[in-house]
Orotidine 5'-phosphate decarboxylase
Amino acid sequence: MNQPFIVALDFSSKQEVNEFLRLFSDTPLFVKVGMELYYQEGPAMIEELKAQGHRIFLDLKLHDIPNTVKQAMKGLARLGVDLVNVHAAGGTQMMKAALEGLEAGTASGVRRPMCIAVTQLTSTSEQMLRAELWIAHSMEETVVHYASLAKESGLDGVVCSAKEVPLIREHLGEAFVTVTPGIRFANEAKGDQVRVVTPAEARKLGTNFIVIGRSITRASDPYAAYERLQREWNREE
Ligand SMILES: O=C(O)c1cc(=O)[nH]c(=O)n1[C@@H]1O[C@H](COP(=O)(O)O)[C@@H](O)[C@H]1O
C-alpha cells in the first residue's frame, strides 16, 4: 500500500461515484467507501469498485458488542476490501473480536483486510472531549491511550489527526499504521473538522495515509485538486 492518498467517496449514489471517477480516466485510486455510500449502494458498490481496480478502505466504524462486531466483520472480510475500521472506544475485547471475524471471513491463502481503530474523531475538539464527553485527559493522552489499546488488541493501526502522528510513532513505533483525515488545503474552510492540517504538514508529521474528501470531491475541478494534492505532498521544503 504505497499510495498515500485515500479519496473519500462521500456520495450517495453509484451514479455520482462513476461521474467522479470518470474525471480520473478510471485511473485506479485508493478510495474510501463510508456510511453515506455503503448504506445506499451496499456490497454491489464494493464489487464494482474492485472490478475497476481501486483499492478500498471500507469505513463503517464498527462499535458494538464483541459478538456482533465479530459476525459483521466476517461478512465484510468476504467483500475482499483492503482496509476496515472500528471505534477503539468499543474496547479491547471488541477489537480482538473484530480481528477474529476478519480472519474467519477471509478465504484461505488470502491476506485479511488491515484493521484500524478510530482514536478520537477529527471533528472532536479538546474542549468537547472534556466538557461534553467527560474524558478527563488531554486529546493527546487520549489518542495515545486508545491507540495503545488498539495495538494491544492486535490491530494494524489507527485513525487520528496527523497532529498526533509523532506521538503515536514515539509510543507505538514506526510499523503501526496511521491513517489521518482532517486534511484541508491552506485557507480552505474547515467545515465540521477540528483537528485539521494541510497535505504538506501531514507529510512532515510522518503520516502513512491521508484521507481526503470534500477538498477533492467538491472542488470545481476535482482532477486539478488531486494534482494539487500530489504537488503539495511531493514538494521538497
Ligand atoms: O474514519 C474516517 O475515515 C474518519 C475518521 C475521523 O476521525 N474523521 C474523518 O473525517 N473520517 C472520515 O474522513 C473523511 C473526511 O472527509 P473530508 O472532511 O471531506 O475531507 C470523511 O469521509 C469522514 O467520515
Remarks:
- The domain at 5-234 is CATH 3.20.20.70 (TIM Barrel).
- The radius of gyration is 17 Å.
